[in-house]
């Protein structure tokens, strides 16, 4: 299947600028502009304008590798801010207004490097989940928040919606967690 994709697809564009491995990309539309954000081992987060084929912004504030970068639809739809959230091996999660090149907030709750972040698909992306090697869930490499409700639980969770978090770990497991109780489902 990959060979079929390669033979029938056409490269549209290549963005260059990072000086080390790119670990994460996210794609979104802000003010009718198609944008990509990227996080890299070169300790930067960059924003690329797809329509104009160029880099429009770069954040150099991390002390270590940037592992995950995501656009925040919550900030855009509720505050008209163009914000990227990103996590790093420096144990922080940062929110950056890339339109005004201003750091908004830093979360310092993890005690080891942070691999993955994910915004909720409910409540307009208001909630953020993070996965770290500090074993707050386990040595987590990836996380996701389910857009589906858990019908097995009668426990009320955020807004009484029954949402769950899924984590993938270095212990070779995938686990599903109740958001409110932070307990694993059996």
Automatic annotation (TrEMBL):
Ranges in a coiled coil: none
InterPro entries assigned: WD40/YVTN_repeat-like_dom_sf, WD40_PAC1, WD40_repeat_CS, WD40_repeat_dom_sf, WD40_rpt
Q: Name one GO cellular component term.
A: transferase complex
WD repeat windows: 15-58, 59-106, 161-186
Listed SMART domains: WD40
* Pfam families (alphabetical): WD40
Which domain of life does the protein's organism represent?
A: Eukaryota
Keywords of this entry: Repeat, WD repeat
Output the SUPFAM superfamilies linked to this UniProt entry.
WD40 repeat-like (SSF50978)
Q: Does the keyword Ribonucleoprotein apply?
A: no
Q: Can you name this protein?
A: G-protein beta WD-40 repeats containing protein
Q: What is the lineage of its organism?
A: Eukaryota, Sar, Rhizaria, Retaria, Foraminifera
């Amino acid at each position: 299947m990959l060979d079929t994709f390669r033979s029938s697809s056409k490269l549209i564009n290549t963005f260059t600028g990072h000086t080390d491995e790119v670990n994460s990309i996210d794609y979104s539309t802000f003010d009718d502009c198609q944008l990509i954000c990227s996080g890299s081992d070169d300790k930067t987060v960059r924003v690329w304008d797809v329509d104009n084929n160029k880099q429009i912004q770069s954040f150099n504030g991390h002390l270590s590798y940037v592992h995950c970068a995501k656009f925040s639809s919550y900030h855009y739809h509720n505050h008209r801010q163009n914000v990227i959230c990103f996590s790093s091996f420096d144990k922080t999660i940062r929110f950056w207004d890339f339109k005004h090149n201003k750091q908004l907030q830093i979360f310092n709750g993890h005690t080891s490097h942070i691999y993955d972040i994910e915004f909720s698909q409910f409540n307009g992306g208001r909630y953020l989940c993070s996965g770290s090697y500090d074993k707050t869930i386990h040595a987590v490499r990836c996380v996701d928040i389910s857009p589906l409700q858990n019908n097995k639980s009668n426990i009320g969770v955020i807004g009484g919606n029954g949402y769950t978090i899924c984590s993938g770990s270095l212990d070779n497991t995938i686990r599903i967690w109740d958001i409110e109780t932070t307990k694993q489902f059996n």
